[in-house]
Design a protein that fits this description.
Layout lengths: L1 E7 L2 E7 L8 H13 L4 E8 L5 H16 L3 E5 L3 H9 L7 E3 L2 H7 L3
Parallel strand pairs: 2-3, 3-4, 4-5
Antiparallel strand pairs: 1-2
Helix pairs in contact: 1-2
Length: 113
């Protein structure tokens, strides 16, 4: 798992590449989010376009991240979900929890609404 970070307006976009699984991506994501929260960055967008697979630990980490960011008064949104991830979120009823977007522009604009 690799995470590239970039900023668009006041939104931190995290481009995730690779599997988000136990021991592979979950800890990396946890550390990165903790650092961003400590820096006062609270508008976060996870770009999941490069993530072919998420296991239960990875899904748990996305949920934990959402909770952490929300408690700090921030927002976590998801963009470019693969069909597999969309199906996983639908099955687990989490699709109703997260704000998901097809395009990055649309997602970034939603933070200023």
């Amino acid at each position: 798992m690799e995470i590239q970070e970039r900023t668009l307006q006041d939104v931190v976009v995290l481009d995730l590449t690779g599997k988000l699984t136990i021991g592979e991506g979950d800890e990396l994501l946890k550390e990165r989010i903790s650092n961003l929260i400590q820096q006062g960055r609270r508008n976060l967008l996870l770009n999941l376009e490069g993530v072919p697979y998420v296991d239960s630990a990875g899904l748990g980490e996305i949920v934990r991240t959402y909770t952490t960011v929300s408690r700090q008064g921030g927002q976590l949104k998801l963009v470019n979900l693969t069909k597999r991830i969309t199906d996983l979120l639908a099955i687990t009823k989490l699709l109703t929890v997260f704000e998901t977007y097809e395009s990055e522009d649309e997602a970034v604009k939603s933070f200023s609404d």
